[in-house]
Amino acid sequence: MPKQTSTQLGGKVAVVTGGSRGIGWKIAEQLLADGASVVIAGRDGKSLAAAVQGLEAAGPGRIDSAACDVRVYSQVEQLMARAAERFGGIDILVNNAGIGIFKSVDRISPEEWNAVIETNLSGSFYCVRAAVPYMKKRGGGYIINISSLAGKNAFAGGAAYNASKFGLNGFSEAMMLDLRYDGIRTSYVMPGSVDTEFAANRTGAGWKTSAGDVAQAVMDLLHSDPRSMLSRVEIRPSQPPRK
């Protein structure tokens, strides 16, 4: 568990999608350690229950979960309503839910394409659309979209994933312009190689960034002075293997 050195987010309520493992789990842990109440969301109820049990020590009584497929707007609305009912409102949204299907553009099926775009891009829009009214009632908030360096660097086999993350970056920048005068700040975080279970990416390689590194970037954004807005954060391993 991260060292509890402050409670700057005491009284704040956060929703973290894709929060049952990996980057989302680590973000939730650090939010709890900093005093926030947190609702994590994911599609697998059993994984969520296990995650809540593991996170309880970081914030006793301040962690809840809701099964939610972010591709379904009605479920997203229910998620936000649950967070507001359970803890009194919504101040922070971290759009972390995402999937990756990596196939050549002539091999990926329409169904696979839609699954990636709907989860990574439309799902983020749905969450923002459903959460913003609650943030406005609280006088503002912070939305952080977890994107990827694949949102600026295309690669073979990444057609759907690249498209979803390029789109998420553009969505984030337009959203910032729409919401800034409502007191809602917007940032997107673009990790590179992260050692998590995502797309069978866990290798134990010491050179890769960790889920904790990404979570720390999120916390740094949340702790930043409200007068400014760090629109984009790129995270890379400091010493990847030489090519």
Please provide a brief summary of the model.
The protein has helices at 22-33, 45-55, 73-87, 110-137, 159-179, 211-223; strands at residues 13-17, 37-42, 63-67, 92-95, 141-146, 184-191, 232-235. With 243 residues, it is of the alpha/beta class.
Question: Explain this structure to me?
Answer:
- With 243 residues, this protein is an alpha/beta fold.
- It has a seven-stranded parallel sheet with strand order 3-2-1-4-5-6-7, with helices on both faces.
- It has six helices and seven strands, in the order E-H-E-H-E-H-E-H-E-H-E-H-E.
- 44% of the residues are buried.
- Helix 2 (45-55) links the parallel strand 2 and strand 3.
- Helix 1 (22-33) packs across helix 6, helix 3 (73-87) runs parallel beside helix 4 (110-137) and helix 4 packs parallel to helix 5.
- The longest helix has 28 residues, at 110-137.
- It has helices at 22-33, 45-55, 73-87, 110-137, 159-179, 211-223; strands spanning 13-17, 37-42, 63-67, 92-95, 141-146, 184-191, 232-235.
- Mean pLDDT is 93; it is low at 1-5.
- The protein has one domain (13-235): NAD(P)-binding Rossmann-like Domain (Rossmann fold).
Helices and strands in order, then pairings?
Layout: E1 13-17, H1 22-33, E2 37-42, H2 45-55, E3 63-67, H3 73-87, E4 92-95, H4 110-137, E5 141-146, H5 159-179, E6 184-191, H6 211-223, E7 232-235
Parallel strand pairs: 1-2, 1-4, 2-3, 4-5, 5-6, 6-7
